[in-house]
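We close this part of the discussion by returning to an individual protein. Part of our work consisted of pairing the sequence of a single chain with a tokenised description of its backbone. The amino acid sequence and the backbone structure tokens for this protein are reproduced below.
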Amino acid sequence: MDWITLLRSQQSDFIQRLTSSCLLHCQTEGQYSELTIIAGERLKALREFCWLMAEKYKRTSPVRDVFLNNLKGKLGEEVVKERLADLITEVDYEQRFGGDGKTDFTLTSNPAIGIEVKSRHGRIDQVRWTISAEEVAKNAVVVCILIQEDVNEAQPKYHLFLAGFLPTQMIKLRTGKISFGINQLLYGGGLKYYLGNLQTTKQINKQPYKASSTLLYIKQGDEYFNQGNYQIAITNYSQALQFNPGDANLYYKLGLARYQLGDYKAAITDFTQAIRININHSKAYHIRGLAHYQLAEYEIAIADYTEAMRINPYLGTIYKNRADARSILGDHQGAIEDYTQAMVQSPHDTVIVNLVSDHDSDADTELETEITECTQAIELNPHDADAYYKRGHARLEIGDQQGAIEDLQKAANIYWQEGKLVAHRDTQQKILDLEIEASLDILNF
């Protein structure tokens, strides 16, 4: 029988005893107890702290809500503090509830090992605890506390049960958050042993732990990035940087995720840091140029594209992007030269080939005419998906990428409403290609 199976078996027994109030109650600090009672001066001190927090943050939330939320959290933290004693850092009452950076405690001997505490009140068969992807990434374990009494301002005594714990390595997130009930937890009696074993293992082999943790966060970050969960990817990349702050590619990936969220200024900061570490990071120059382009900083974008070309002169996409910026600034001859070079480097890229043809044949007038005709068709029939689709393509070819995406999205929505699923799917794919074309083609994850 492995330790997980054993703790789950003990948890089942604990749940049965919980309904009959036949529980282990030990008042000695540092010793395990299923039940902890908080009352008197200890409770008074917690209340006073929570009222201070309520007053401090009353502008953002109702005072009573802030007080109760803080009290729930601090009650749970007091339980964990009493049971684990010197094994963990003490609660810092100068900190706001929730802990510093989504971590409530760390092991005294190793601050890299975080512990998150979750407190809830409710029926045993219905209560659930929730943890976010960021909390999973930053902590080694989540400890769950069940509060018997309803939390309010006048309650004189609280009976608190250490409902169980979960190692975060056992939590597999498919979305930004996950919830679990008491029957999914491991028996709390194994918590101290688990943390002690975790502490010993990581003290013996710190460097392999550092390397494996970095790789794990990077792998998770890449998976979430590819799924389009960019915020969770950012959390994982940021965690990896805590272990390896000199990795240029990590800053690049972090910047790329921020770029996808439209946080262009933050992305530029990350790409700049990647370049400081590796001055020849062609991809960081390229996507930083795209971020400047999105902010209408076209001359700076051109400078970044030029640096990217200096390092990697064989990527047609860079020439195409510099051509776009030059065209907006009125440098039509420079744009034609760059589009032409883009076609030389990427002769099978139909978008680039079409752009060159458009400039060479003075097709801009025809595109404007097509946009006008499609606009007239839309005015006559606002549900003409084909008109939106054609206008979107025309806008793309004149460099209006945002307008193109908006038109294609409207077309996709109408196709869906009309049951034209193939057209809807193809249009959605085109939108995705437009949004990530200039960046994902060169990711090489």
About this structure: The chain has three domains: 3-204, 207-360, 365-435. Residues 77 and 439 are 44 Å apart (CA to CA). The beta strands are 35-39, 105-107, 110-121, 128-132, 141-147, 157-167, 177-181.
